[in-house]
Design a protein that fits this description.
heterodimer, A: two-stranded antiparallel ribbon, elongated, B: alpha/beta, 6-stranded mixed beta sheet
C-alpha cells in the first residue's frame, strides 16, 4: 500500500460490490415508460435507460428504494431479498 | 547567520519565513498570536509569496492546511489550548494520511477554569494522534527545531506531521538573543518540498483518506505506528546534520543529557529545563535528562540515561486526570520496568495554568525525593 493508504488507481471503488448490502430489491415492471426520472434520483448511479428500457445494476444497488418512491408512473416495485 | 534580540514568537516566525511555506492558515489564540501575526505581516509586505488563509476557526485552519498539503504544498499553522483541542479530529486524519504538516503549539492550559497561561496539557493530550512532538527549551531551540521539523516531516522515510511545542509566554513572549540562520544555508539544508504520495495533478489522479475495511484499516494503523517508531533515527540524523551545518544541536535529537553522571536524575520537557539546569549547577547530586522528542517516545535512550540512577524525578506540566500523576511519570516507569535493579521513580506536577516553577521548589523537591516512596507524586502548589 501507498503511505497513508493513498490510492493512485482511478475508479477502484468499482471493486467493492455494494449490492450485497441490499435488503429490498427494486424491480421495474412493464408499466415503465422509460422516462428516466429514476436515473436522475439514484444516489449510486446504477440505473440506466437503454432504448427506452430501464436497467438496474444489482452489483452496486444498495436497495435504498428512492427510485421506487420517485417513479411518477408507480412502475417500480420492491421485494425483500431472500438470502 | 545574524544575531537578533527578539521576542520568541517573532523569531520563530522568521524561521518559518526561511522555510518558505506555500500556504499558512491559522486562527489567532493567545499566546500563539504573535507568531501568525508576524507571518501575516511578512506575507502582506510581499517578503514571501505564501498564501495566508484567514479562517474562522482552528478546525478550518487545520482542515485547510490538510487540503493544501494534500495538494502538494508546504504548509504551516500554529495554535494552542482550546484551539488545539478543536483541531483534535483532523490531527488524526493528517497523521493517518501521512501528510507532512508542521505546526507550532504555544503550550497553554486547557479550560475549565479558563486560563491563558502555560502548561503542556494541550499537546500532551494529543500524544496518541500520530504526530511527532518535539518540545523546546529556548527560543533558539524553537527556531532550529522548526527548520528541522520540515526536514523530518518531508523525509520520504518519515512522512509524518510534526508539532513543535514551545511554552506559551515563557518562550513566546520573552525576548532572547537568537541566531537566525541565513536564507542560503536554510535553502541548502531544506530543499523545496517534492510531494509523491499526496499531490493535486490531473494526470495522476489519486484518492487520499479513503474508506477502509477492518483489515486494511488495522494494517495501515500498524504501518503508522511503525513509521513513527522508525522516525527516531531520522530525527537523530537530521539533528546531527543540522549540528554540522549550523553548529548547534540538541543532545542526540531525542533526549539531551546535562551533568547526568549523578545518583539522581531529573526528567523534564520544555522551558522548565532551563530552571532545572540552574538548580543542579548549584548541587552535586543531580543531573538532567531532557526529553526533546516526546513522540516517538525514545525508550532505549531513556533506559540508557537512567538505568544506573538511584532516584529519577519526573517534573512535568500536565496531569492525567484519574491517573493521579502526569503522563510522563507513568511512561518513564514503563520503560524502566524491565531493569533488574530499578531506580526509584517519583513525580512532580508543576506549573499548571502558568504557576511559577521556582528554583527553591526544585531544590526542595530534590531533597524530599530522598524520603519519597516509589511512584509518589508531589504537587508544586
Amino acid at each position: 500500500m501507498e503511505p497513508g493508504g493513498a490510492i493512485k488507481k482511478a475508479g477502484s471503488s468499482k471493486e467493492i460490490k455494494t449490492g450485497s448490502w441490499r435488503t429490498f430489491r427494486p424491480i421495474v415492471t412493464d408499466r415503465c415508460k422509460g422516462c428516466g426520472i429514476c436515473v436522475q434520483f439514484c444516489p449510486e448511479g446504477c440505473i440506466k435507460v437503454d432504448k427506452g428500457k430501464v436497467e438496474i445494476d444489482y452489483d452496486y444497488c444498495k436497495g435504498c428504494l428512492i427510485c421506487v418512491n420517485e417513479c411518477p408512473t408507480k412502475s417500480m416495485e420492491s421485494k425483500r431479498e431472500e438470502k | 547567520m545574524t544575531r537578533h534580540f527578539m521576542e520568541g514568537s517573532k523569531v520563530v516566525a522568521e524561521a518559518i519565513f526561511l522555510c518558505k511555506p506555500d500556504v499558512v492558515s491559522a486562527y489567532p489564540i493567545t499566546p500563539q498570536t504573535h507568531i501568525v501575526e508576524t507571518l501575516a505581516q511578512l506575507i502582506a509586505d510581499g517578503r514571501i509569496k505564501s498564501k495566508f488563509l484567514e479562517v474562522e476557526s482552528e478546525f478550518t485552519a487545520i482542515s485547510s492546511v490538510a487540503g493544501a498539503v494534500a495538494a502538494g504544498s508546504r504548509t504551516f499553522t500554529a495554535t494552542c489550548s482550546q484551539g488545539l483541542a478543536l483541531m483534535h479530529e483532523v490531527l488524526f486524519a493528517i497523521a493517518g494520511m501521512r501528510l507532512p504538516v508542521v505546526m507550532v503549539v504555544a503550550n497553554r492550559a486547557l479550560s475549565a477554569p479558563i486560563n491563558i497561561w502555560n502548561d503542556q496539557q494541550d499537546s500532551i493530550s494529543e500524544r496518541d494522534s500520530g504526530w511527532i512532538q518535539l518540545y523546546v527549551e529556548t527560543a533558539q531551540e524553537a527556531v532550529d527545531t522548526v527548520i528541522q521539523a520540515y526536514k523530518i516531516a518531508e523525509d520520504r522515510r518519515v512522512l509524518l506531521p510534526v508539532m513543535v511545542c514551545m511554552d506559551g509566554f515563557i518562550l513566546t513572549h520573552t525576548i532572547e538573543p537568537v541566531n537566525v540562520p541565513d536564507d542560503v544555508d536554510v535553502n541548502k539544508f531544506l530543499p523545496k518540498y517534492k510531494p509523491t504520495h499526496a499531490l493535486l495533478d490531473s494526470t495522476i489522479p489519486m484518492t487520499l483518506g479513503p474508506f477502509a475495511y477492518p483489515e486494511p484499516y488495522f494494517k495501515l494503523r500498524k504501518e503508522l505506528s511503525l513509521a513513527i517508531d522508525n522516525s527516531k533515527k531520522n530525527i537523530e540524523e537530521i539533528n546531527e546534520e543540522f549540528g554540522e551545518k549550523f553548529k548547534r544541536k540538541y543532545g542526540n535529537g531525542l533526549i539531551e543529557e546535562y551533568r547526568n553522571d549523578k545518583k539522581i536524575a531529573i526528567v523534564s520537557m520544555g522551558s522548565v529545563c532551563g530552571t532545572i539546569r540552574c538548580v543542579i549547577d548549584s548541587r552535586e547530586d543531580t543531573g538532567l535528562v531532557k526529553i526533546r522528542c516526546y513522540r516517538p517516545f525514545p525508550k532505549q535512550d531513556l533506559v540508557n540515561a537512567l538505568k544506573e540512577k538511584e532516584t529519577v524525578i519526573v517534573i512535568e506540566k500536565n496531569i492525567s486526570l484519574g491517573l493521579g500523576s502526569g503522563s510522563v511519570l507513568s511512561e518513564i516507569r514503563d520503560v524502566l520496568y524491565n531493569l533488574k535493579e530499578k531506580p526509584k521513580v517519583v513525580g512532580a506536577v508543576v506549573g499548571l495554568g502558568g504557576t511559577d516553577v521556582r528554583s527553591k521548589d526544585i531544590n526542595a523537591l530534590i531533597d524530599k525525593s530522598k524520603t519519597m516512596e516509589d511512584g509518589e507524586v508531589e504537587w508544586f502548589i
